[in-house]
Amino acid sequence: MMYKRLFLATLIFAGCSKKPEGEPNQAWGKQPDLIPIAGQVTLTVAADEPFVNVMGNAKPALPNFPAIEVKKGFLRGYVADMTGKPLEGAYIGIRSTIGTTNGAHAVSNANGYYEISLPYGAITYYATGYEKEYGQGKAVMGLFPADDNTTGFASENGQVKNFVLQSYGLGNKSEVAAQPGNSTNYYGGAISFDYSIDWDGNIPEYLPKNGTIEVTLVPEGPGIFGENRTFVIKKNIGIAALTALNIPVGKYAISAKLSNGTPLKMQEVRPYAGSFPLWGLKPLGPTATATVMFTPIFQYTTQMAVAHKSNWQSLNIKLSR
Fold this sequence. Notes:
single chain, 2 helices, elongated, 25 strands, 321 residues, five-stranded mixed β-sheet, mainly beta
C-alpha cells in the first residue's frame, strides 16, 4: 500500500510539473546587454510647443526570444522584460469578429510562454498587460510587441507574437504620429505641468509671460531596469502647458524654478490628485521640493491594458510662484 501511494504521488507531481500542451521545448539563450541610460540631458522646449519626448526615438534592446514556428489556428509566443527575463502572469487578449464578437485570452506561464486557440475570423489584439512591482506597490503596465506590429490577421493562418515589458520607448508609430502628446503612446512615464501666466504683471503667484521654466528630474536610485539619467527641461513660457513624455520609469527627485533662480511651487492636481497613495507627487504640495513616481491609468487591470500602449497616464502638476 505504501509503494502504491508513492507511485500515485509521483504521477500527480509529474502531471503538475509538465509544460502546458503545445509549448515547445525551447530554452532562453544569452541575452543582450541593456543599453545604458545615464548622465544628464538638457532639453529646450519652445514657447509654442506643449510637450517634449525626453527619450526621442531611443529604442531599448530587445530580448532574444526562443524561436518557435507558426501553428495554424493558434496565437502563441513569449513575454519577457528588457533584460530577457521571462514573465509569468502577462495577459494577452484577442478578439475575432464575424457577425458577433468572440474573445479569447491567455496568461503566460513561468517560462513566459502563452498560447491561444483562436476563434474563427479576423483577429485583433485588445489587451496586452503585466502587473509589475513599482516602488511599494504593483502597477499595471502595457506590453510592447517585439516586432512593433499589432495588425490583425486571419485566425486560420495563426501567428507567433512575442511581447516585451519596457521602461521607455515609442508605442504604435501611427498613434504617436496622430497623437504625439498622448502619454499612453510612450512606454516611459509622463508629467503634465499646468500654470497661469501673469500677462499684465499684477498677479504675483502667476508665472511671467516672458520667463523660462526649468524642471529638473534626478533619479532616486536606479529605474526599474537600471536607468539613471537626469533630465533638465527648459520651457519658454508662451502657452500655459508642458507635458514631459517617455521618462524612463522609476522614482525621481523633482524641482522647478524660473531661469532667474526663483523657485516654483508644485502641487498635484486634477483629476486623480491623491488617488494613488504609493505614487504621484510626494508631498502633494504646494511644495518646492518633492519626489515623483508615475501613475498608471486609474483602476485599470491587465485585462484592460490596451494593446501596443503603455498604460501610463500623465501626472498633473500645477506650478506657481
